Amino acid sequence: MSLPTPPNIDPAKLADFHNVLKQSKRIVAVLGAGISASSGLATFRGTNGLWRGQDVMQVATPAGFRHDPGLVWQFYSYRRREALKAQPNAAHYALAELARRVAPGFVTLTQNVDNLSPRAGHPEAQLKQLHGNLFDLRCVDTVGCGYTERGNYENPLTPALDTIKDETLTLGHIDPDNRPKANPILLAGLARKNAQILGDKYDDKGPSAVDLAPLKAAAAVGGEQELGARPPPMSDIRLSSGLSKDDLPQCPKCQANILRPSVVWFGEALAESTALEADALFAEDTEPIELCLVIGTSSKVWPAAGYAEKARKKGARIATINMDAGDAKGLRPDQDWVFVGDAAAILPELLKPVIGDPGAWKKSTDS
Ligand code: BJW
């Protein structure tokens, strides 16, 4: 199968990119939620983003989890269900093939927790999951108990987290007056933390059309995704926990605590080994990096937002692939490329001189 050339790629720019790609021995890719948009998964920020209508501090911080673990587990139960329903798209497969062809010189640093890159067969040694994985769990008592579990695909994890069962009841426009109520002292604490962590840099962008367009593009790259199969936006799902600890996944080791998703929330450090491995890519005593691909991320969250600049310091030219040109950060127009459009449509074309046509590489990962 040959992909149609995305119409908005300038042939001269593409040729320049291809020249650099073909000569590159070390390449780094930084991924964000946009790469999985064509697979039907919502991004965070934007019209149908996961965070529209949600208080980020309630669902993506340790303080939020401590306050209402049921609410956070409902959010992640929904995310696990959507990720299990989704399939990797052409962009995930293309990067997996690039990793095989440029081993070990190509490494992907993904912020995504959706497991789609591993499912596309991306070699594990060349994939760093910076923010963890939805299907890894750990005991909340990391010091005393330390239980961890990888690759738990059970869905739902407990009967109380069966969000499908309740969908007819919970779907509907979120009523701001009817949100789960938090205690005012905790809210003041969260607000302070919000300001500390998110700072002035945090900008919850207003509605844009970019999150809808990928559905059309997905059809153009082989029609693997069902059009119209986009999940209801998270903002339309009422998260009102009312769940007790007994309703939530229990730690099988210590049998005293609940489990939490092994993902990285705001204010938490990345897993030490992952952070060290990522930083080691840019160490002074390593070979130059020729190319950095920044794919489907708003580049607002650190430390991931800083990796492209680190690659630049190692000599890399930077190619941004995004639906929204405005999300290409720190641009140097004389050196950088911005390819605007759906990553699933653009990436296979960009990488073609090294990975060949999808007919050749997708088969080797399908089995
Ligand atoms: C398409 C498309 C299509 C759509 N094709 N494109 C330095 C300065 C300021 C603040 C900090 C700093 N360093 C650290 C901080 C604090 C904080 C931070 O970054 N805050 C900022 C918001 C200002 N960082 C942290 O807290 C991090 N921890 C840390 O640094 O620890 C230090 C420490 C050390 C020692 C002790 C303690 C602490 C942790 C950050 C964790 C982020 N976690 C989340 C949740 C993960 C779990 C989950 O998934 O639920 O990660 S937040 C959320 O944002 C998630 C994402 O991975 C991450 C990035 O979002 P992403 O992927 O960019 O998505 P969107 O929606 O923003 O963008 C989508 C893009 O796709 C858009 O550009 C679209 O246009 C595009 N798009 N369709 C191509 N088809």
From TrEMBL:
Keywords: Metal-binding, NAD, Transferase, Zinc. The active site is at H131 (proton acceptor). Transmembrane segments: none annotated. Zn(2+) binds at C139, C145, C251, C254. Residues 7-357 form the Deacetylase sirtuin-type domain. One of its GO terms (molecular function) is NAD+ binding. Pfam families: SIR2 (PF02146). PROSITE patterns: SIRTUIN (PS50305). Signal peptide: none annotated. GO terms for cellular component: nucleus. Belongs to the sirtuin family. Class I subfamily. PANTHER family: NAD-DEPENDENT PROTEIN DEACYLASE SIRTUIN-5, MITOCHONDRIAL-RELATED. This is Deacetylase sirtuin-type domain-containing protein. It comes from Apiospora kogelbergensis. The lineage of its organism: Eukaryota, Fungi, Dikarya, Ascomycota, Pezizomycotina.
